[in-house]
Write a structure and sequence with these properties.
Strand order of the largest sheet: 1-2-3
Order of helices and strands: HHHEEEHHHHHH
Protein name: Integrase family protein
GO biological process, one term: DNA integration
CATH superfamily of the domain at 10-132: Intergrase catalytic core
Shape: globular
Number of helices: 9
Largest sheet: 3 strands, antiparallel
Helix content: 40-55%
Domain Tyr recombinase: 2-182
CATH class of the domain at 10-132: Mainly Alpha
Distance between the termini: 43 Å
Keywords: DNA recombination
GO molecular function, one term: DNA binding
């Protein structure tokens, strides 16, 4: 499995969303758009139930760390979530699997990580990008860092405990740090 990267360009972020919508499904485009706004690990993103959303907040316990994520939903995430709820009022999960005929007679389940991986890989290949499920989380971290230059905020958002891990995670390389030192003269 190859390492995936943050998407560092807003136009590419929008293009990925568009291609997911037309090449795979609206649901996969929604996974991308909501995932990029919530910065959750894919297992936590896919496990979101509508009952986890309380007004303009998402509250859930992360499966990997056991930490509680209490996330303020931005306007775009709220609009997308409300649209999904309108299209699928009886769904339990935000990203519920519903295409198979067998799902009508079984307990509801979320989309699988594998289905999302396959969709993202398809679009990534078309764009010649190493695109995967972690790309959403990495992209959100990278964009926040570019906007604020505050690594502490990025660490808090991603719920990381080490700066070095966060820098590596969002794709800030030693070359970029060296460039910053070279270009910023005081």
């Amino acid at each position: 499995m190859c390492e995936v990267h943050a998407i560092k360009d807003a136009d590419t972020i929008r293009l990925i969303s568009h291609l997911l919508s037309i090449r795979v499904s609206k649901q996969m485009s929604d996974v991308w758009n909501i995932g990029i706004n919530l910065a959750l690990r894919i297992s936590d993103l896919l496990s979101i139930q509508f009952s986890d959303i309380q007004g303009d907040r998402l509250i859930l316990r992360e499966s990997k760390t056991g930490k509680v994520a209490n996330i303020q939903l931005n306007a775009k995430a709220q609009i997308l979530i409300n649209d999904i709820k309108l299209r699928h009022p009886n769904h339990v999960y935000l990203f519920q699997s519903y295409r198979s005929r067998q799902t009508k007679y079984r307990k509801p389940k979320p989309l699988t990580r594998r289905a999302v991986c396959d969709a993202f890989r398809l679009v990534g290949e078309e764009l010649n990008l190493n695109l995967g499920t972690h790309s959403m989380r990495k992209t959100r971290g990278y964009m926040l860092y570019q906007k604020t230059q505050d690594l502490g905020r990025v660490m808090k958002m991603l719920r990381h405990s080490q700066e070095s891990a966060t820098l590596r995670y969002i794709g800030i390389t030693q070359d970029e740090i060296d460039c910053d030192f070279k270009e910023l003269e005081l």
